[in-house]
Each structure stands twice: as structure tokens, then as C-alpha cells.
Amino acid sequence: MDSISDSTRPQRLQPGIGFGTFGSTGTLRSSLRPGVTVPIAPLLVLPPPAPLLCVSSSGPPPPPPPLQFHSLYGTMGGGMGLGTAAAGPGNHPGNPAVLKEAVEAVVRSFAKHTQGYGRVNVVEALQEFWQMKLTRGADLRNGALVVYEMVPSSSPPYVCYVSLPGGSCFGSFQFCPTKAEARRSAAKIALMNSVFNEHPSRRITDDFIEKSVCEALISFNGNREEADSPSTGIGAFRFMLESNKGKSMLEFQELMTVFQLLHWNGSLKAMRERQCSRQEVLAHYSHRALDDDMRTQMAADWVNREQGVAGAIGRELASTERELEEARLAGRELRFHKEKKDILMLAVGQLNAANAATLPSH
Question: Region labeled Disordered — which residues (predicted)?
Fold first, then answer.
């Protein structure tokens, strides 16, 4: 690592798969084209995001569960040969009726403590909640604005997504006969998770870090030296947690979305090939927000995959849309799935533009 110049290091840490001189249509190197096995373990291997709130029984909503990262340290250890942990019961969609009842109970409770008894305008309540956080000193780089996005449709059911100021995304989880109802449904699930996110059990503390690292060592038969070494999977897991001490689960999930997308796109494996250390990648991307430049580079990689294997984008897009729909109906946090779909749609646009540019003029 010492022989690599400072001017080269930022290029090696770019999210695109390629490195060096690229063609005009993308950044995918021929050695990393689909179907070619590269015998290098990825720096990180991350699971799909777990639901921020899991409802599994009838009656009033349960207290917010503790942070659950037990599957994360298992999949961050690509260099250790650690496999993906099995999905727990929280990774399966719950009973829709129970989820609806729990959401309504939280909204009613929030309304009682903030506005008194009576019907609450949940869209206004969600905006006021985040505005309140901003006025109380929350670190919201882009302000407290809550953004809604309707899925284009001329008939029901209507679907709406809502993005919170930090980047977390939720969607309408019920059958919505009107656009207004879809907006309210999305606001309800977002408000519930926003409120529960304030609970102390959803904060990363010294005690939580120590407990989580000990569980990781036990689960994977590791030793204490591994937890203190940044070159191991468990060491990287500890580094991530300590770097986010004091943050909430929503905030940590927003950070992990970046690494999940880098893994999904193949960028982490490519960085490994460029001899980037796990610690170097973690340190670099822990302080980088997901932006249009990163999305564009990932989309360009998918354009090159499509040019190498026809139908690659279509198959991945169909799979992503199924995952997004399942997660939305289960009331889960959606940003990872939503960003994947947006990147793939951007790739479709790039591909169409490239094809149009090559058509003969008449």
C-alpha cells in the first residue's frame, strides 16, 4: 500500500468497476465481465437490509427491538471466508392486518402526546416530527424536508414512497384506492419508524459494540486479536460500529446502504483487485454520501454488463422490483431496493441513448 501514490488512491476507490482507461460506454473491465470468475474475495459482503420494525403478534405494538447486526459481521468478513448468516424470522413479511394495527396504534399514541385526542394528519405529523428534530439540533445536512414520490399509475392500487431527511425510505404498505391514501399510508409507516428510532435501545453505545463483537467472536470461533485487527472481517465490523457510536439504527442503515450497493454492483470486489485494503474502503465510504455521480458510475457498469450479456439489466430489474414490492408490503425500510431500481432505470436510459446515437441518420 505504501508504494501507491496519493494521486492514484482516490481513483482506486471509485465506485465503478473499471480502473484505468475506459471506453466511452462504461467502466467494466473485460476481466470482470459476467461469467468470468475472479479468484479474489470481496472486501465486504452485506445482507439485504433487515426490517427496522418487525411485528409478529396481534395486540398493541411491541417495544422497539434492540439493534440486530448479528448477520452483518458474518457477511462483512469476505476476506475471512465467512458466509452469509441465515435470515431470521424478522426477514419475512408479517401479517398485513397485524402490521396495519400496529402502525395505527403508534400513530394514535403519537397524536395523543403531541396534539391531544382526535384525528391526526399523519403527513403533517411526519413533517413536524423531523422539523422538531432539526430545531433540537439534529444533524440533517439537507434540512428537514420529507419527500414523497408517487409511482405513475392511472388506476388503483396507488403506491407512494417517502424519503426521510437522512435518506431512509418507506412505502405505502396497504391497498390504496386513492393517491392521497397512498401518501398517508407511506407517512404512517415512516412516522412509526421515526418515533421508534428515538428509543435508547436503537443507539450504538460502547456496551452494544462490546456485546456485538463478543457475539461475533463466539459465532465464528474467532479470537480477541481478530477483533482488534482492521484486516479481519470482525475487526472491520468493530471499526464500522465504533465509527458510528451514538448514531441510531436509521442512521446506521443509511450508511450501510452505500456499502450494500457497492457490493451489489461488484465495486467492492473490483477495489479488492486494485489492492485497496478493507480498512481503506471503510474509512473512505463511511464519510461519502450516495450521490448522482456514484449512481451514474454504477449505471455505466450495468450498461457494460448488458453489452456483454444481453438481458442482464432486464433480469436484474425484474428481480429488484419483486424484492421492492415484497419489502414495501412488509413495511420494511426500502432505500437499498429503491436505489437499485433507480440505478438500473438510469442504466436503461444510458443504453437507449447510446443505441440512439449509433442509429444511422436518414
Answer: 1-20
